[in-house]
Amino acid sequence: MDQVIGGVVADTNAAALKEMGISSLLNNMVANPGEFAVTWVVVVTLVLMSIACWYYTVVKTIQNQVIKARANHVIRTFWETSNAQEAIRFMEEQPANEPFSKIALDCAVAAAHHQKNEGSRLAETLSRSEFIDRALRQAVTRESSKLENGMTILATTGSAAPFIGLLGTTWGIYKALIKIGASGSASLDAVAGPVGEALLKTALGLVVAIPAVMAYNFFNRANRTTNAAFDAFAHDLHDFFATGSRVGEGSSKR
């Protein structure tokens, strides 16, 4: 509604709408931190969740790219190396964060340990195949667990951020109702600030949650693909170290 004051048209609605802006909310939060305590908690929580989400998104993107880039080379080199000792030496030279080499090394160590203890109670209790299979399962489980790092943060952010934003929304609406009751008027200038605060916190919750959900789904798919590669490599390693050759391989590695 426009009002004429001293011959000048004053747009009170436009002035009230400014109270719904982000800059106005930030200024009020800084000027009156006690009054906006709930808002501070909601905003700081969402910002921290967003930072953690983007950190793990970047870290896991790099991690997956590095694993994918090295996987084929490591696996191919292992099988194409004619001497088993040289292949194991190549695996030992791989970086600490390269999972396929660690699975192969655990398998080789288990095979060597069982062979060294032939005739002992270990060999009587577990066959060579069973002992190697157990070592491979442990290695695959360990490397698969490393892929899950950060997934809990992404899942928690994606599921909780909208509700944290909704908490801020509810609080903003509650403040708007209090203002209406105190002023006895439901005019825009009375409720613009609290309503704007509520809407901005809803938007912030969604802005934090949507990338987290997308990142979680992407990395979940990538982890399934990598785990399938772990299993396939582990099966080939089991066949080789337990029988001396891979299934479908005409001649064994010497």
Task: Give the key terms.
254 residues; disordered N terminus; disordered C terminus; mainly alpha; two-stranded antiparallel sheet; single chain
Shape: rod-shaped
Largest sheet: 2 strands, antiparallel
- List segments where confidence is low: pLDDT < 50 over at least 5 consecutive residues: 1-10, 250-254
Mean pLDDT: 80
Helical segment count: 9
User: Helix/strand/pairing class, anyone?
Assistant: mainly alpha
Radius of gyration, Cα only, in angstroms?
Answer: 31 Å
Number of strands: 2
Amino-to-carboxy terminus distance:
90 Å
Helix content: over 70%
Oligomerization? single chain
The SSE order reads: EEHHHHHHHHH
Strands in their spatial order, largest beta sheet = 1-2
Beta-strand percentage? under 5%
